[in-house]
Amino acid sequence: MNQTSDVVVLGAGVVGLMSAIHLAREGLSVTIVERRARGREASRAAGGILSSIKPWALASELAALAAQSEASYPALTAEIRDATGIDPEWRRCGMLLVDSDQAIAAKQWSNAGGQRVEILDMNASVTLEPAVQPGSRPAIRLPDAAQIRNPRLMDGLGKFAELNGVRVVEYVGACGLFVRNGRCSGVSTDEGLIRGDRVILSAGAWSGALLARVGISCPVTPIRGQMIWYRVPRGTVEHIVIRDGYYVIPRSDGVLVVGSTADAAEFSEVTPSEMVRQLHDAATRIIPQLDRTPVRGQWSGLRPWCPDGLPYIGAAPDVDRLFMCVGHHRNGMALAPASARLLINIMLGRSTRIDPAPFDPRARMAAPAVADL
Ligand SMILES: Cc1cc2nc3c(=O)[nH]c(=O)nc-3n(C[C@H](O)[C@H](O)[C@H](O)COP(=O)(O)OP(=O)(O)OC[C@H]3O[C@@H](n4cnc5c(N)ncnc54)[C@H](O)[C@@H]3O)c2cc1C
């Protein structure tokens, strides 16, 4: 498989696919290499909440990415739906934090230019969401919060990428980045070298291992998250509801997704039964009638975690023509459109609306121990 593209993208999650689409729309030839089917890993496992579950606690650098992404989702998902026939189901369903001690912080954030926030007493909370158990403390409502149905987003994005001319190579794992004389010019696979004038690494939780092979120490590690789902009568709840860090997300057809746990599980995606019990108990505390509702299924995914909480977006340290967009941890669906846009503008040498400095991998990672592999 000895072909050359302007850009090779390693990893077809939400970050890789969105980056590939931007580049293809700039007129560049793009190949995306994926060891499984596209969009199967963290991006499929996610809940699809398009904001942080405590947006007032988000680092200011991430808030800029979040706001830009949030604004872009309605048009992006409409375009995907019209072009592919797959509806990612973007919906402004609102978010309700029940029994929260965050009311003051939420109000201050809203007054300082964040989203609209309403503080609801117990009666108002029950009137709004009768199936939800109110707490002794007020509830916080964010009426503008939105969700997407991310498995559908990923299916739509994959198809949309192809319609935009991206060559998607599936079931071909990269064994390494091809670096010669300090310059990256492709991806090595079992089926040969896939050459590119530039390479983007967007391999999520697996990115650290690929960088280590070219001597770059990148602290991205996997944090496993587990999810379960129920089928309930449509309209049982309308909002994403959050309590004690767990959430329920109502899809439009009565599917109710519940998440999520967080544990350092290396690269295992097995869902232990005690995790299912933990999620079921949390769901029942939010919606008591779920106690009598069977859990229909479970899954898990690996979030790409990085220690300082900011993704790495930009040129990799000391290897020419290697770029990266990794480490979105819990917020990859909420941030990916703006992260991909920022990366592409950096690659193409354009000015950026968002300050790229806090995300620059070169300032935050160790230099290669071996410059030329
Ligand atoms: C349970 C759970 C719930 C979540 N909920 C939310 C949410 O509600 N909202 C939100 O914003 N975020 C959420 N997230 C976080 C979000 O899913 C991630 O931040 C995001 O999906 C990361 O995207 P990615 O493209 O970087 O990684 P991934 O989606 O993991 O994609 C990386 C891709 O690289 C491929 N790859 C890896 N190694 C190789 C190789 N050697 N060769 C070829 N391909 C390779 C993988 O197969 C994979 O397809 C959640 C995550 C989990 C696990």
Briefly, what CATH class of the largest domain?
Alpha Beta
Q: Which runs of at least 5 residues are low in confidence (pLDDT < 50)? A: 367-373
Helical content class = 25-40%
Overall shape: it is globular
Helix-strand sequence: EHEHHEHEHEHEEEEHEEEEHEEEHH
C-alpha-based Rg, rounded: 21 Å
What is the CATH topology descriptor of the largest domain? FAD/NAD(P)-binding domain
Beta-strand segment tally:
16
Summed up, the domain count is 2
- The structure class reads alpha/beta
Describe this structure in words.
By secondary structure, the protein is an alpha/beta fold. It has 2 domains: 3-47 and 152-220 and 307-364, FAD/NAD(P)-binding domain, CATH 3.50.50; 92-146 and 222-305, D-Amino Acid Oxidase, subunit A, domain 2 (D-Amino Acid Oxidase, Chain A, domain 2). The chain has 10 helices and 16 strands. The chain has helices at residues 14-25, 42-45, 60-84, 103-111, 122-128, 150-163, 207-212, 273-286, 332-347, 361-364, and strands at 3-10, 30-33, 95-97, 118-120, 139-142, 167-169, 174-180, 183-189, 192-201, 221-231, 240-243, 246-250, 255-259, 297-305, 312-315, 322-326. The strands form 2 sheets. Strands 1, 2, 6, 7, 8, 9, 15 and 16 form an 8-stranded mixed beta sheet that branches. Helix 1 (14-25) packs parallel to helix 6 (150-163), helix 1 (14-25) packs parallel to helix 9 and helix 3 (60-84) crosses helix 9. The chain is globular and about 65 Å long. It starts with a strand and ends in a 9-residue tail after the last helix. The structure holds flavin-adenine dinucleotide (FAD). Residues 10-16, 33-36, 40-43, 45-49, 173-174, 202-206, 210, 225, 227, 259-260, 301, 303-304, 326, 328-334 line the site of flavin-adenine dinucleotide (FAD).
